[in-house]
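queue> holo job accepted (zinc ion)
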Amino acid sequence: MGLSEEFKKKRERELEELKEHKKELNKGEKDLYSKVWVAHSINFVVEEASKEVPTLKDYERFSCYLATILARKKQVVAVWLRILSDRCEIHLSKNFTWKNKDVKYIDKIMMHLKDISKNAPAHSDINEGAFTEAVTVYCSAKLESRYEKLRDYIKKNGGSEHVRSFKDFFSANTADKTSMIMASRTCNKYYKEVKDKDDGKVKSSILSEFLELIKKVGSYAGSIIGIVECARNIQYKSLFSNSIVIKRSPVIVYDQPIYSWKNIIRRFIEEDKYEGFMDRCSKKTNVMERMRKAYTDNATKQQQPLNGSDVKQCVYLHAEMNILAYIIDNKINGREFIAVSKKCCYLCELYIEFAREQGFDIIISENYKKIYSGWKLPHVKNDNFKIDSLRYILESLNRIIEQKLEHYTRSLPASPDSGGEYLDVSFEKASKKVRRVNSLFDE
Ligand SMILES: [Zn+2]
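queue> job finished
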């Protein structure tokens, strides 16, 4: 066999292996998305979210502020600062597409920040004012929804001690009581005060729910102040004068094939238990609602059959995964903090855990422990990494589904239409074979 012949054979073998590899990946991914959807429906909250918050460096906190002011209502934005010797890259990603409006806003924000930084330590009402206004307008819808939630809480709990104490503080500290952004500023002040003198009271769940609402309203004013302070910091002058924004493109697959609901459930339980399980699910409105939503075809708005063979779903890369994929592909091994405008979901957290095991020092702000359907696996360039991460997440999902199904089917009540009547004849017959006893009750 000639040398070129041998080379050809080797090449063919490699291609064959590659095909097998891709097959496993496609099949595994279909498995993954189908199970994510089932797990999301039957076990949305995996466990209590951890209260642990990592200690952040100044510029990492800056990323958090940026994430807050870049996310419009119902949107998730992730921010990662990559500080290099000659410049700073601000990587931004979002679950869905960047609109023209977003792009213009980001440009404007960056321009204002450069101006503020250049002018520091002097103040300029024009620069700071323009920045504050831009943020307030862009974020107004989201701020309003948070503001309304806080208002509802206050209405319902007006009499309680913690609400009254906040009311006193609010009255004394807010000049314009009908301005959302002024309220945000007061909330930010109040949250800082109460959090700093955390004397054990904060641990009560009512108070922490209330404080969480205050924190959310206050996050806008807090972010504006934090960003301006950072831009005015002499230490960061070069960072702002030499920064470039890199907007990552979203990754969305609109018609990802998935296995049917029944197909997945049946891998865990026998046919005879399936009906009972479905019966149990139908009594849980939350489960049914999540199942319905997750299984509704995006294009036709029709719910797809639970046992259908041609089920499709939209999956998309979560904003933080988009940035993480870049970090992995570029083998960036230092401490890298990714700020997200929303708490990190359970599957993103699992993926980060996997990346950490592979030597990536990834820090993320807060987590959620919730499973969202439509979560997409990052496609990193390294095939082994991709397959291993897929397996890692599948293992965890299998465990979650198995436990939940065990819980659902183990305690199944006896089916009402089967009291075992068909055994009556057998009981009668068996009676004749044993000794008679006195009746439990006298006639
Ligand atoms: Zn996520």
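queue> Residues 89 and 155 are 45 Å apart (CA to CA).
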